[in-house]
Every structure is written in C-alpha cells, then in structure tokens.
Amino acid sequence: MANTMNRIKNSAEDTQNNVHGDDHGIGQRDFYDPKITSEHVEREIVGMDEYEERREVLDRLRHRDISRDKDDDMEIEQREFYDLKITPEHVERDIVGMDENDERRDRDKEFVEPIKVDPFKGNIHQRHVVKNDIDIAIPTKPPNWWELISNEEFHHYIKGFINEDLDFGDVIPGWLSRSDVLRMEMLSTSEVVHVFDMVDHDRLRLIVFDDGKSDKIDDFETDCREQCGVQKSLFDWYEIFAFHLDRVLEINRSLPAVARVLEVKESVQFMDSERFQDRKPRPLIWWDPNIQHGGEFMRSQNSLDLSFIDYQNELKYRCNSPNEEEHASYVCQSHVKNIEWGKLAMFDFLLQVHDRLDRNCCGYDVDEGEFCMVNGMHDVCDDIDKQYLVHIMTRKGDPSRLVFIDNAGNRKRSSKHLNFRLLEGITEVPKESIEVLRSGKLRGKLLQSLRVDKIFWKAVTGEDGANKLIDSIEDRVRHLLDYIEQYDIKVVPNY
Question: Are 339 and 492 in contact (CB under 8 A)?
C-alpha cells in the first residue's frame, strides 16, 4: 500500500515539471491529479500494466473528436467505461497494492462458495428405509426445523402456501406459534391416505394424511407422528372457536384445529362415505402422538385417574406449586401443577365444558340441552364417591402440564344458569390470561384469529356470527372475574 502511494506521488511531481506543450504530460497530469480526495481513492488500484493501458486509451480519447452519435456503440462504450466522474457506488472498494491484488486473485481462484442449507427442504437429517433389501437414505427436515430459522424466513415460507382456506395475513397473529401455523396448514391441505373408524366413538374418524415420507400406518395410536388428525362431527364445530380462545388467552393447552370440507379418493378404504361426500365442513383436530393414555377409568380418555374428592384435595393443598402445603392425611395423586387446574377451570367455565371437571352435570340447576341431564348420569350427583374426572390428559414427556381435548362446550348455556362448580376449589389462575380478559381487547383479538380460518368464518356467517359467539364469552368473562374477586383467587404468573 505504501509503495503504491509513493509511486502515485512521484508520478504527480514529474508531471508538474513536464513541458506544458507535451501532450503526453497533459494525459499524465489529468490521470495523476495530485489533488486526490478521499472520494477519489476509495477504489482498487490495479497493476501498472493496466495503468499503461488506461493512459493510452485516455490519450486516444483526448486526441479524437468523439462523436455523440448514439449509433457509434464502440465509442459510447469507451466513454461509459472510462468515465472519470466516479460516483460513491463505484468507489466503495479497498485500495490494495500490487502484491495484495495478486494474492486476492489467487484466493478467488481457490474459493468455492459453501453449500447453503435450505431449512425448508432439509438436507441435514436422513430417514432410512429398506426397499428390495437395499438401505435407502431419504433426506428429511431436522426436528423442529421451524424453530431454527428467522422470522423473515418463516414468513416467506408461509407466503408460499397455496391455500385458499387459511389466511394468516401480512402479520401472523402473535398468539399462534409456528408449530400451530404448520399444523393448521397440514390439516387444511394434506391429502388423506387412510381413514380409521373408532368403534367406541361413532362421531369421530381418525385421519392419516400424506406427508410425503411416512410409511404405511397399521396402528393409529402407535404409528402416527405429525401427520394425523381427528375428524369430528358437525355438532363439534365450536371446538374450532375454543382453539382460538385458548391461544388468545395464552393458555396454549388445546390442539390446533381447522374447519375443512374433507374429500377422500376412491382408493382410500373407509366405512362411512357420507361425511366425505356431503361437502359439509367439519372440525379437524391435530392428533398429538405424545399424549399419554392409560388411566384405569375410561383408559382411552384419561392419562390418570382422579375422583372429584381427590381433585379437590389436590387444589386444597396446592399440589405441585411453589406454595404446596404438606398434610399428613393426603398425598398428592398427580404431577399436574396447581396452576394447570386454574387454566382448565377458567377455560371450561368460559366455554361451559362440563365433561372434564363435572361429568355428571352436578353444577347445573336446570336442563338446557346437556345430554348428561337425561341419560341418568346426573343421578350420581347424590353420591360424591362415584364422581370422577374425565379427559384429564397429559403428555408422555411432561406429566406436569395438561392437554385440553374435546372442547366443544355449550355456547347456548344461559348466563343465569352457568356451571360454577367448574370453578370450585380453584386457588390460583394465570396472570397472563386475566390480563387479556381485563384489557378490553379480547373481542378484537378473537375476531382477528377467527378470520384466519376462512371456512369457519364463512360457516358462522362472518363477523356478525363471530360477534354473537364472542358476546356469550364476554358475558361469562364478567361472571368469572367477579368470582375470582369474591373468592380471593390468586392471580399469579404462569409457572
């Protein structure tokens, strides 16, 4: 660098001492102007051979009457290429010496641009399958790949969805996680490859979707990974509303749900054809393969067994909370955190879901359409020892947190006859949810969230229908907040 600058300075001094009538000197004076500013020098000065070439070209240009005729392509090209009026965009380069320039050229020859890993296509992980006794490695996405990319990359990926039934807008609602978005998209668009019937649940169908990589599924509960869902009946559409309420309140315990008109190819085997041909939208709920099944009481619908008496003791002694109370007469029966029961009770009260905490409808004073009021289950209310909780689900890897399933509830239950037994014994509720309920922003957030599911939005007749659903929720919110204040229930940060 120093040698190069000295050569420039010496050349400039020689030029000033040269004869003024020397045309060659004029060319040197013009090219080697000693009045060099920082704007002039922010360029790469190449080898001396190129200096000579530039000087010769400049001499020719100065002795030639360059025509401005635009048809003279050669001269126009020369004028543009050797333009001395250099802009800031042209000069943002380093000045390097002859040796460094040679080294740079050598490095450029050896440089190979690294392969950029596409986080969407995934070429890091491989899945091995055997075909004709040959082990074949199939590239797959890394686990939780959506958490490894930037917000900009994820939003760009979502924009690539070709789906007229979901619209996340220019900004994805902040309460919907990336996994929510991807699972909703899968439920909304993926092709059905298999349908399982449930003998004990005629209103449900277990759906296997084509994810492009899974082997054939023989057992739904053991073989499903991310590619399965549960199709519910026309009577369960309120469960889609429940999913969005759960996310807006930052409870995050229900499973992703969408409305979909599900069609099945003729090659797919299934028993019931009506629900796949009547063009009516039904709820599709993502199947979580990590849910624990195995309670002795109604095994397929429980992760653990709790009688209503045990449940009340769990609440009384604040089991699995920072303020847990020890008592010689009771040992905690579960690993579920105390705050989880507060979330569940609050959620069930707003939706009037009685099936988990009050399966026998003992908290209802009048019959307003609940099936339990007429099928004999209500008669058990006289014997508390026969009352059990149902649909109490946790995940295999985390028994301390609940998973909410079957959330359809009763949107028509009147405000004068709400089931307050759902809140009985609760000692604390999450601060994050209560802040949303008190903020006055619940309606706006719910409307924004529900608009994402265009089939559901249309099914409830748009904003007017959605507002009617929210009306009943807001009325129950007032009752809930009054109850929390009346019984001095603690509002605590989630843990």
Answer: yes
pLDDT tens sequence across 396-422:
999 999 999 999 999 999 999 999 999
* Of 264, 284, 282, 261, the residue nearest 273 (C-alpha): 264
Secondary structure tally for the chain: helices H, strands E: 17, 11
Distance CA 263, CA 280 (A): 10
- How far apart are alpha carbons 320 and 343 in whole angstroms? 15
Rounded to whole angstroms, the Cα distance separating 423 from 257 reads: 26
- Position 332 confidence tier, pLDDT thresholds 50, 70, 90: very high
Q: Enter the tokens of residue 82.
A: 């050797």
Helix axes 23-31, 48-62, angle to 10 degrees: 120
Relative to beta strand 490-492, strand 428-430 is parallel
Distance CA 437, CA 443 (A): 10
Q: Which amino acid would we find at residue 441?
A: K
**CB within 8 Å of 99: residues ≥ 6 apart:** none
CB under 8 Å to 137, separation ≥6 — which residues? Answer: 126, 127, 128
- Stated as kind and residue range, the H or E segment containing 421 is none
